Amino acid sequence: MEILKELKIEDKIVKVIQGDITEEDTEAIVNAANSHLKHGGGVAGAIVRKGGYEIQEESDKIGYVPTGSAAITTAGKLKAKYVIHAVGPVWGEGDEDDKLKSAVLSALKLAEDKGIKSVSLPAISSGIFGFPKERAAHIIFTTAVEFLKKAKNLNEIHFCNIDDLTAGLFKKEAEKLEGML
């Protein structure tokens, strides 16, 4: 895990991290999920492989989550206590920007309502769902930071991605914000 950028926004913390989200020790990690919460590939598959099948079993009980929404389960054997399953859009389905923003907000509202203090987010929808990575990084970063500024419980957000390209895009977003602080 490598911290690429860390910002303080009033009394809140934002970190851009390159590494494996399943290794994050935030209270919750966000999973880039599909609507049926079948965690086979990508970030979702890695979370279940590392955290244990109980995450999939809890997800099966929840069933269907519409695009732009989120659901929460425990985190099995992961360092985090919770996994928040955010369902982002598939590129090309229409209204993708708003659906991605809604998925991020849904995940963060769940965290806030549960009293969670720290959350780690990946680049939702930018893998097999085909959302352009640069655009996804901008929407996810700005939406999460705006939410964080007003949050009562949540006081730390990490943007955690395993690959150089995606982690670098989030670092650029943090640098833009830093220039405005």
Task: Describe the 3D structure.
Helices cover 40% and strands 23% of the residues. It has 181 residues and is of the alpha/beta class. 48% of the residues are buried. The protein has one domain (2-180): Leucine Aminopeptidase, subunit E, domain 1 (3-Layer(aba) Sandwich), CATH 3.40.220.10. The mean pLDDT is 95. Strands 1-2-7-6-3-5-4 form a seven-stranded mixed sheet, sandwiched between helices. The chain starts with a strand and ends with a helix.
User: What is the N-to-C order of secondary-structure elements (H for helix, E for strand)?
Assistant: EEEHHEEHEHEH
- Percent of residues in helices comes to 25-40%
Give the class-level CATH name: Alpha Beta
Q: Domains counted in the coordinates: how many?
A: 1
Terminal Cα span: 26 Å
Task: Give the secondary structure arrangement, pairings included.
Elements: E1 2-9, E2 12-18, E3 28-33, H1 42-51, H2 54-62, E4 70-74, E5 82-87, H3 96-113, E6 118-121, H4 133-150, E7 156-161, H5 164-180
Helix pairs in contact: 3-4, 4-5
Q: Can you give keywords for this protein?
A:
Macro_dom-like; alpha/beta; 181 residues; Leucine Aminopeptidase, subunit E, domain 1; 7-stranded mixed sheet; Appr-1-p processing domain protein; Macro_dom; 5 helices
Short overview:
The chain is α/β, with parallel strands linked by helices and 181 residues long. The chain is built from five helices and seven strands. The two termini are 26 Å apart.
